[in-house]
Amino acid sequence: MGESLDQFDAAIAAAFASDHIFLILNLEAMPIIDSSGIGVIVNALQQSKKLGGDTKLVRPSPFATKVFKMVHILNLFSVFEGEAEAIEACGG
Length: 92
What we know:
The chain is an alpha/beta fold. It has a single domain, classed as 2-Layer Sandwich (Transcription Regulator spoIIAA). Helix content is 52%, strand content 14%. A 3-stranded parallel β-sheet has the order 1-2-3. The radius of gyration is 12 Å and the shape is globular. The protein starts with a helix and ends with a helix. The mean pLDDT is 91.
């Protein structure tokens, strides 16, 4: 996934650098995910929790949902059908 993964990781780092402690990751357009992508998302969750925030998932693809279940991490995230719901769950 190379460059795409680097861009995704950089965007997450930029959000934290801008004092955002809640992340909402819309995964609808991400049809596949590999272990590196999972690592970035789990790291984002850990960082946001450490800062007192959270990371929410919006519309993960069926493949991503299956993989997250398979590696037993889906239950770590709140999953939403829309971004507005995820924002509301963050208190916004």
